[in-house]
Amino acid sequence: MDKIRAFIEEQFLVEFDDDDFPEDTNLFKEGVMDSFGYVQLCRFLEREFAITFTEAEMTGNVLVSLTQIRETVTAKLKQNG
Fold first, then answer.
1. Residue 69 CA, distance from chain mean position
2. What is the mean pLDDT of the chain?
């Protein structure tokens, strides 16, 4: 799951830390990620982890923080068994 953090930090030029920018920070509200970046993130996750996102998942605010992204990817990996 560190690949996800590394991707976000590299792509969106942020650095997560516990005090100033925790992993549960909403990346949209903080202006870190826009819709184009969101699509890039989804495509990265699909390629890297061999998962797919439904339209509802992509539009349902499930991938707005590093914490939520990790939880979603973990759940999808368990579904795929």
1. 4
2. 92
